[in-house]
Design goal:
Helix content: 40-55%
Strand content: 5-15%
CATH architecture of the largest domain: Orthogonal Bundle
Largest sheet: 3 strands, antiparallel
Distance between the termini: 82 Å
Number of helices: 12
Shape: rod-shaped
Strand order of the largest sheet: 1-3-2
CATH superfamily of the largest domain: Winged helix-like DNA-binding domain superfamily/Winged helix DNA-binding domain
Structural class: mainly alpha
């Protein structure tokens, strides 16, 4: 199609060229626009009219991109249109393993977590889970050194849509969904699943005299001090 200036008015040609640029997903090359007008001078006049129409008072502008033309948001308006959304950082494999061990073996100490995993905990793993609010201190075990035990929090249950910790999937469920292969065990996970059905194992631990009970609100600095103390003990042992 070609617009003949003898057959169509400039205002009408402006509307057509404007619509062509607006409807294109990519900048429209000048040679493509030239196909719709009789000469280059007419095209320059049309582009000037469009550019004037979308001046600083408009939210969009006609811009030249190389040898092509496109509509773009005015720079000052574009800054106001940016919407910042927090991006959740996926948990590392180590953090997922620790979370699973705590969930299925709670209440569990740091040393027990390391024994189950067969590798020492890195400094930031527990910190990440604490920041998410998915784990919390459960009290101190009545053994030498009175190590702190850990368990999951109500935030953990709410995040994963669980009403109670006993709603965690068992070994058979994990295998049926393909999350656990036949014969595969995740750091003694099977033992932990069996322990969930034994109320005595859990109640004995929680009924011990603890420095902080489940009902006690732990302050961030107390948790931080406790973690640092555990790390210092670990460094001394090594």
């Amino acid at each position: 199609m070609t617009l003949n200036d003898d057959m169509i008015s400039i205002p009408e040609a402006v509307r057509i060229i404007e619509a062509l640029i607006f409807a294109s997903a990519e900048p429209v090359p000048k040679r493509t626009l030239q196909n719709y007008v009789s000469d280059e001078a007419m095209l320059s006049e049309i582009l000037h009219i469009i550019s004037t129409r979308f001046d600083d008072t408009s939210g969009i502008a006609l811009v030249q991109v190389g040898d092509a033309f496109a509509f773009r948001t005015q720079a000052d308006v574009a800054a106001r249109l940016n919407v910042e959304t927090p991006v959740e950082r996926p948990l590392s494999r180590a953090a997922l393993e620790v979370l699973a061990i705590i969930a299925y073996h709670q209440p569990v100490t740091r040393a027990e977590i390391e024994e189950i995993r067969g590798i020492s905990l890195s400094r930031g793993t527990m910190d990440i889970l604490l920041e998410l609010g998915w784990i919390k201190p459960r009290g101190r075990r009545r053994t030498p050194g009175r190590p702190l035990t850990w368990g999951t929090s109500p935030v953990f249950l709410d995040h994963f849509g669980l009403s109670d910790i006993s709603d965690l999937p068992g070994v058979d469920e994990l295998r049926s969904t393909g999350l656990l292969r036949k014969g595969q065990m995740l750091g003694g996970l099977g033992e932990g699943l069996n322990n969930l059905d034994s109320e005595d194992d859990v109640s004995d631990e929680v009924s011990d005299e603890t420095l902080f009970s489940d009902e006690t609100d732990w302050h961030p600095h107390e948790i931080g001090d406790t973690l640092e103390a555990e790390r210092a003990t670990q460094d001394d042992d090594s």
